[in-house]
Amino acid sequence: MNSRIVHIATNTFREAVRDRVLYNLIAFALLLSGAAVLVGQISIEIEKLVVINLGLTAVSLFGIVIAIFIGIGLVSKEIEKRTLYTVLSRPVRRWEFIVGKFFGLAGTLVVNTFFMAIGVFAALLYVSHHLVKSDALILVALYFIILEFVIICSLALLFSSFSSPLLSAVFAFSLFVIGSFAEDLRGFAAMAHGFTRWVATGAAYLVPNFSALNVVSSIAHGEPVTAALILHNTLYALFYAAMALSGAVLIFEHRNLK
Amino acid sequence: MSAIEILGLEKVYKVGFWTKRPKRALSPLHLAVEEGEIFGFLGPNGAGKTTTLKLLMGLVFPSAGSARILGREWTDPEVKAQIGFLPEQPYFYDHLTAHELLNYYAQLSAVPAKERSRRVQATLQRVGLPDVQGVQLRKFSKGMLQRVGIAQAILHEPKLVFFDEPMSGLDPIGRREVRNLMEQLKQEGKTVFFSTHILSDAEALCDRVAIIHKGELRGVGAVEELTSSVQGKVEVIWQGTQIPASLKALGAECHVTGDTVRAIIDERQQDAVIDALRRERLRLVALTPLRTSLEAYFVEKLRRAETTAGSTV
Amino acid sequence: MKQRRKISIIAAACLVVSLAASALVLHQIDQLRPQATRQEVLYLNSPTVLKRLSLGYNGLLADIYWTRAVQYFGFRHHNHADSYNLLAPLLEIAAHLDPHLVVAYHFGASFLAPAPPNGAGQPAEAIRLMEYGIQNNPTEWRLYYDLGFVYYMNLKDYPKAADAFARGAKVPDAHPFLRLLAAQMAEHAGEFETARMMWRATYENNRDELIRENAVEHLRALRVDEDVTHLQQAVTRFGERTGRLPTSMGELTAAEGLPPVPADPDGHPYRMTGEGRIELRVPDDFPFATRGLPPGYTPQPKFHSNSQ
């Protein structure tokens, strides 16, 4: 059982890496980091700030786009193009397929982030010529970005398990946008009354909480991140992904593959 | 033990957006396929062949009924280790090479690691793709993809193979190769279940066939029996353009083509005709029992279904 | 089939458990970083930049900043804060993104000007915000009211207050009481009745919970101030007549013809100290009262129940 998941994950990784879309997006993100260097030179004294802000935002945004593009491709496109049939005609359980795909995609994104992060650090070295201890915070921000990816991957899989590629992409991206304002949604829910309050609160807890994972602006200013927050965010991402994946497995188990 | 026992598998789809109307893709099907035979599953497009295969593969869930494959419940995952499946118009991961793809499938089918590359290479050879190292699948032609599809179905030496339209996309040479392959599989003791709408292939290959139309089984039987000379007609060809009067008296249909005459006579008149020809000193060229072709049987079955059947649901 | 059911049950259970767990963890995270989105304002507080970044969705972003302003104030107020530095920027951003977001101006009128802990203590900012609002919504009479309100309540600048009310009274469809208020400013500015009119108007013209609660507290405090003033005047009159202090509240009320047990709006009777001072029994119930308090005592601000 486990080896099948590993094989599916590895194969997913290989297929994702060979897909040239990935390279274009990485190149773009690297380009953006370079642009950050240029922009930083225009506004003196805040070069470092701009590099970190722009660079990390680029890593995050492009990673999300990659996660959605490839994540959608995983199940939706596989069903549409029927590559799935030959896989499921083998002793592979449907849930193993979903879990394997998830790990493959998450792995792809981690590697991806690694390369993009190199770009950011390179740009940072260029503007400030040496790294200080507070720059380690960038690693925390990157770790949180990876947690964001884990959540988005699980959501992409969830939508792929029942929806067409286009709709899945739309849903996943929408949830990313809404999730970035999750804290505001909760604030709105607290101010509302009656039925609206119930609906808003429910939505506010179901929507992925990306606002807590976005520490880019604060670490750009050198503000520390508490260990408690790191732990909680990790737990949150894991539970949320587990939730989305359980949903994906549940749906996929019962789906007729026409 | 039957290789496949289909016990009343049925599939009704609910079609429509607001009001779901039932659409019957497969009426309760009862069918058995014996081990070691090549079984043809025939029918026009949209008859329910692919639905049946998908039901057996567990890709689609039945509305009713069950099946046993190689003695086990068809939903048993362990069954999958012993079967191979070639879907219609297969499509594979664009960016992998054939070797990587087959290796992946071999992993999933639990082929031991040491065996894998040897098996992959051997299978590729067997399906006629010896030299595709390093070429990504997106560069393969339709025919090559079909061969890869066949390869993945037989790679792990399954006891039972399911092919959905295995000849599609292949040129005549390719089709002959696949026919040979299927014969080989039979000789190796494997069972082959394949669906097609090309009757000549079925006629050439199959031990038994089933005909399905609009989700219903119309006929099952050995090809021999189905195409045996039910009508009892014989074709006689002789040199010359003369038609003996006695033959005309027998009421035979005679056609003159070039310098030979062709007549269709009743089986029982066979001896009388031969005598007549000898008396007239006409040279007999050929005497052949007329077999109903599978095609004729097929068309007739379908036509009968149209006239007896009322609604199509 | 059995396999499928088993997997489905496990998946469903996993779904429910992880949903609950994620909600719990999320709740914890909220405790850990209660003001985070509000802090962002420190880094990104230029309305023009935000306007461009919002890609045209100004209204939505304005609403978001408005929500943040309310949450910010409510949370800090609940936790006994003594500064609200981010309130002005948050409200200003909201107003700049959507100049017609009238409720932002109302909120600023109630909470930007008063001194901490009841407000940000920035009356000048409040005035500026009101004027900005009036500039962009010249026919919204309530904004002139808000402007006058700030001048009256926090700056005690009665002429300017009168001026604001008068401007507002000229707006078509303005509430007639604006004209009345303008007139009141001239002669009766310092009177209880005027203040009562204003707070009642604020209460009636707003739907925001915090603003209304604030108005209610002020009305209660006014009642107390008024009561204590009258009672204290009665003590003085008693003293002038009898040459001594009354021995008890009962004696005072009997002698001065007042209702027998004068009580505060909560029903607690006022007390009289040995030195003849009228005092509240529970001063902390009336955070805005200026009279009836023990000497040198400032009541603790009362914190609203439904803020985070």
Characterize the structure shown:
- The complex is a heterotrimer of chains A (258), B (313) and C (308).
- Chain A is mainly alpha-helical and 258 residues long.
- Chain A has one domain.
- Chain A is built from 11 helices and no strands.
- In chain A, helix 6 packs parallel to helix 11.
- Chain A is globular and about 60 Å long.
- The model of chain A has no long low-confidence stretch (mean pLDDT 85).
- Chain B starts with a strand and ends in a 5-residue tail after the last helix.
- In chain B, the strands form 3 sheets. Chain B has a 6-stranded mixed β-sheet with strand order 6-7-8-3-9-10, sandwiched between helices. A 4-stranded antiparallel β-sheet of chain B has the order 2-1-4-5, with helices on one face.
- Chain C has 308 residues and is mainly α.
- Among the domains of chain C are: 40-129, no CATH class; 232-285, no CATH class.
- Chain C has a two-stranded antiparallel ribbon with strand order 1-2.
- Chain A binds chain C through residues 93-95, 181, 183-184, 186-188, 190-191, 205-206, 209, 211-212, 217-218, 220-221, 226, 228-229, 232-233, 235-236, 239-240, 242-243, 246-247, 249-250, 253-254, and chain C through 3-4, 7-8, 11-12, 14-15, 18-19, 21-23, 25-26, 28-30, 32-33, 36-37, 39-40, 43-44, 64, 67-68, 70-71, 209, 306, 308.
